[in-house]
Specification:
The protein is an alpha+beta fold. The protein contains 4 helices and 3 strands, in the order H-E-E-H-H-E-H. It has one domain: GMP Synthetase, Chain A, domain 3, CATH 3.30.300.
C-alpha cells in the first residue's frame, strides 16, 4: 500500500467513525476498526465491530443503508478528487483475536 493510499484509508476510517457515531441510534455501539482502500482509490471497505453482538446484523444493515450519506460526508470532509465507493463489513479478524485472547486467559 502506498503512503497516499494509507493516508486516505486512515482518513476514511476516522471520518466513518465520526459519521456512524453521530448517526447511530445508540441501541448498539458501532466501532470502526479499520478500512482498506483499493490501490486505484475507487473502492474502500470499512470494517466494524458491534456491541452487543446480538445487534450485529441490525447494525450492519443500518450502516449499509447509510452508505450514500457516508459518501456525501466524506466528500464534504476530504480534499481528494474521487471519493471511493464504500462497502461495510463486520471485522471477523477482531472477533478471532478476541476469541484467541479469551482462550489464552483460560489456561
Amino acid at each position: 500500500m502506498t503512503e497516499r493510499t494509507e493516508k486516505i484509508s486512515q482518513m476514511i476510517r476516522k471520518l466513518s467513525a465520526e459519521f456512524l457515531g453521530r448517526e447511530n441510534n445508540k441501541t448498539s455501539l458501532i466501532t470502526v476498526t479499520s478500512s482498506d482502500t483499493s490501490p486505484d482509490l475507487k473502492k474502500a471497505t470499512i470494517f466494524i465491530t458491534v456491541l452487543p453482538e446480538s445487534r450485529e446484523a441490525t447494525a450492519l444493515d443500518f450502516a449499509k443503508r447509510k452508505r450514500a450519506e457516508l459518501r456525501d460526508y466524506l466528500k464534504k470532509n476530504m480534499q481528494i478528487k474521487t471519493i471511493p465507493f464504500i462497502d461495510i463489513q463486520i471485522d471477523r479478524g477482531e472477533k478471532n483475536r478476541q476469541k484467541i485472547d479469551e482462550l489464552l486467559r483460560e489456561k
